Amino acid sequence: MKNLVALLVAVATIAPVSAQNAGPMQIEKNRPRQTAVPAAKPIVLHTGRPITPDQKREVQVSAARSYAAKFPGVKLRANVESGSAPAISTVTLTPLSLYQTGYIDTEWNNAPYVNPELNQITFGPGESSYIDFIFVAAANTSYTMTFKVNAFTANPQYTILPSLPPGNGPNGSETFAGNTGNDEFSFAFVADKSGILIVSLYSPNAYWTFGSCEITAIPIS
């Protein structure tokens, strides 16, 4: 409760940031026009504890198998099934580094407290306060997102969903109970084709801070 009070005092003393944050203009210019969505139901893992490397691999493999089950003609690489496929790209986003040109960009909306010097972006409760992760996704590739967040509200919930474009209805929406304070969870999917794919994250009921998101892309066929 003390943390929440301190947060609200800080919000009152710092000009609110309600407009979307945008990455460099060249990212926008280089985005393909084709849009993509998850080809099968995304996989969500939340254990209430830090996500281990083995659990990240399990989530990735589960997403690849879910994709292959929906499309019987798809043949997974043997090393994907064993969980040992080499990552073709791994990047970790933080409030100080929110994009990688040609791969991932972010935008946020209605974040009541933004302080890059303290590496902090805080969101309020409700679907109007969210962060979007904008992928330049590749076909036949699994993406595993592992989030670190911090909730200031008791019994927080989180909703993660692919949206097309930002603000449109859910496609594979998942809402789950989180932990007060520091928390981690993973979200894995395979895009149905190459193109722009957007994943949104918000809390229906909590003030929460975005800490980081590790994103790993692995070819599956």
Number of domains: 1
What class, by secondary structure content? alpha+beta
Radius of gyration: 17 Å
Share of residues in strands: 35-45%
Largest sheet composition: 7 strands, antiparallel
| H and E order | HHEHHEEEEEEEEEEE
Q: Spans of 5+ residues with little confidence (pLDDT < 50)?
A: 1-27
Tally of alpha and pi helices: 4
Walkthrough of the structure:
- By secondary structure, the chain is α+β, with helices and mostly antiparallel strands.
- The chain has a single domain (about 1-20, about 30-220), classed as Galactose-binding domain-like (Jelly Rolls), CATH 2.60.120.
- The protein is about 20% helix and about 35% strand.
- It is built from four helices and twelve strands.
- Strands 1, 2, 4, 5, 7, 10 and 12 form a seven-stranded antiparallel β-sheet that branches. A five-stranded antiparallel β-sheet has the order 3-6-11-8-9, with no helix packed on it.
- A hairpin with a 4-residue loop joins β4 and β5 (about 120-125).
- Mean pLDDT is about 80; it is low at about 1-25.
Task: Write a brief structural summary.
The chain has 221 residues and is of the alpha+beta class. It is built from 4 helices and 12 strands, in the order ααβααβββββββββββ. The strands form 2 sheets. Strands 1, 2, 4, 5, 7, 10 and 12 form a 7-stranded antiparallel β-sheet that branches. It has a 5-stranded antiparallel β-sheet with strand order 3-6-11-8-9, with no helix packed on it.
How are the secondary structure elements laid out?
Blueprint: H1 2-13, H2 25-30, E1 43-45, H3 53-70, H4 78-81, E2 89-93, E3 104-109, E4 113-115, E5 120-123, E6 130-137, E7 141-151, E8 157-163, E9 174-177, E10 181-190, E11 195-202, E12 208-219
Antiparallel strand pairs: 1-10, 2-12, 3-6, 4-5, 5-12, 6-11, 7-10, 7-12, 8-9, 8-11
